[in-house]
């Protein structure tokens, strides 16, 4: 073989090998890389629950949002309502059931939910700052339930009843405004909190007709959300929130289908509602702009050993002004879907937005048959296929620069000894391409 022929052969071989590697890499989900989160392990309190000692730590991973335009990766996270133990789950923690019914034990009833500012330096996560949620008059918010019709009963560490709180929130998700400040979604109402850059809650948006449950609140209450939201399944309220790049569009998701008309319907439904809210130039609520359906996957796709009611939408992250990423989990299974709302049916002002509609939207299996186009859903990431495994109880997720997903876990305040974890997952070439294509409505 001549030198020229050998050179051509080597060149073609190199190109073939490179293309083969690219094809193989494009078809493989990227591996998960754990981050150094030693700074996130913050002690909270040592308490005793009915004689059982607990060593609690801060759980700052209920929600996560990347702050755009920062020189180094900066994120904001949020705690939930604080350490809590459902009575029907107390036996798994303490060896015997301590209380009955839908009551919940709050070992630290004075806990105030907080926002945390985190920075990523290489593989290390640092805590830069934190703010407790409070009213403008400095009244601290609590994690105790408001006096809602369908609410859990709160107990202290001695199993004595606690009063409801009109300033109680179960914060689960956070979105960051470029101009400063936040939107936070919570599960009780469910409701939305407009928060300034210092953690002061300027306004609380609640479902129409539920405002009486917040009588005496130190925070201004505005009943502008759809009244059907009160049908949210207990402890399955707002769980994900995403602010579009235009800063004028807010997407908010429920964790699960409504109990509409009842809890039995919820157990078998796959229809999760996602709201679209228009904001003004200051980032404040302007009007409801849409209400869509995300038909979550069958539980067999995520966790064959679980039931359909265990499938939860745990986080949203915006891709562009009409598409978001939605994190869905059940048991040890976790998947991320690209949702496009460009041609999805809006339920605002339709019969599907009314409680008296029978059968309800939650009872529908074939949405096309009843004239509803759900959000178009495309699988982007499946933790079961990746090179690395994600930790359990991932609750927060944020898309960074359209190329990387960052996840954070909820450690449940260390009740079982868990620690907060963060994981970075680079998206594969196919996923990145799908995100870019979604910028054009289809």
Description:
Helix content is 11%, strand content 36%. By secondary structure, the chain is mainly beta. The protein has a single domain, classed as Neuraminidase (6 Propeller), CATH 2.120.10. Strands 10, 12, 13, 14, 15 and 16 form a 6-stranded mixed sheet that branches. Residues 1-30 have low confidence and may be disordered. It holds the Pfam family Phytase-like. This is Phytase-like domain-containing protein.
What's the layout of helices and strands?
Elements: H1 3-26, E1 33-34, E2 43-49, E3 52-57, E4 63-67, E5 74-78, E6 85-86, H2 90-94, E7 103-105, E8 114-121, E9 124-132, E10 134-135, E11 153-155, E12 171-176, E13 182-186, E14 191-195, E15 200-207, E16 221-225, E17 238-243, E18 249-254, H3 263-268, E19 271-279, E20 285-295, H4 299-302, E21 312-318, E22 323-330, E23 333-340, E24 376-382, E25 394-400, E26 404-409, E27 422-426, H5 429-437
Parallel strand pairs: 7-11, 10-15, 15-16
Antiparallel strand pairs: 1-27, 2-3, 4-5, 5-8, 6-7, 8-9, 12-13, 13-14, 14-15, 17-18, 18-19, 19-20, 21-22, 22-23, 23-24, 25-26, 26-27
């Amino acid at each position: 073989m001549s030198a020229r022929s050998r050179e051509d052969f080597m060149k073609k071989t190199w190109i073939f090998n490179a293309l083969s590697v690219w094809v193989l890499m494009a078809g493989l989900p990227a591996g998960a890389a754990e981050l150094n989160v030693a700074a996130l392990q913050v002690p909270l309190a040592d308490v005793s629950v009915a004689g059982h000692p607990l060593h609690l730590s801060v759980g700052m991973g209920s929600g996560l949002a990347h702050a755009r335009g920062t020189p180094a990766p900066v994120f904001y996270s949020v705690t939930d309502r604080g350490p809590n133990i459902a009575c029907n789950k107390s036996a798994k923690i303490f060896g015997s059931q301590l209380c009955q019914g839908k009551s919940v034990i709050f070992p630290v009833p004075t806990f105030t939910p907080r926002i945390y500012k985190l920075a990523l330096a290489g593989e290390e996560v640092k805590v830069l700052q934190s703010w407790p949620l409070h009213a403008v008059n400095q009244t601290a918010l609590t994690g105790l339930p408001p006096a809602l019709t369908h609410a859990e009963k709160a107990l202290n560490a001695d199993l004595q009843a606690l009063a409801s709180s009109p300033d109680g929130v179960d914060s689960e998700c956070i979105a960051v405004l470029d101009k400063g400040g936040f939107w936070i979604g919570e599960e009780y109402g469910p409701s939305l909190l407009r928060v300034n850059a210092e953690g002061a809650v300027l306004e609380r948006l609640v479902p129409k007709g539920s405002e009486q449950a917040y009588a005496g609140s130190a925070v201004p209450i505005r009943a502008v959300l759809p009244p059907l939201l009160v049908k949210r399944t207990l402890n399955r309220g707002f769980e994900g929130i995403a602010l579009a790049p235009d800063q004028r569009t807010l997407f908010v998701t429920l964790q699960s289908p409504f109990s509409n008309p009842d809890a039995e319907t919820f157990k078998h439904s796959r229809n999760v509602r996602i709201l679209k809210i228009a904001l003004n130039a200051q980032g404040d609520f302007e009007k409801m702009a849409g209400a869509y359906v995300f038909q979550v996957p069958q539980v067999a796709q995520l966790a064959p050993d679980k039931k359909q009611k265990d499938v939860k939408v745990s986080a949203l992250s915006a891709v562009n002004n009409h598409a978001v990423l939605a994190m869905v989990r059940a048991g040890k299974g976790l998947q991320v879907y690209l949702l496009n709302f460009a041609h999805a049916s809006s339920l605002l002002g339709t019969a599907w937005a009314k409680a008296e509609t029978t059968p309800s939207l939650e009872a529908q299996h074939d949405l096309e048959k009843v004239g509803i186009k759900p959000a178009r859903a495309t699988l982007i990431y499946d933790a079961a296929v990746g090179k690395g495994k994600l930790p359990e109880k991932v609750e927060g997720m944020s898309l960074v620069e359209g190329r990387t997903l960052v996840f954070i876990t909820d450690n449940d305040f260390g009740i079982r000894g868990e620690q907060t974890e963060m994981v970075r997952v680079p998206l594969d070439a196919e996923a990145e391409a799908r995100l870019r294509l979604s910028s054009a409505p289809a």
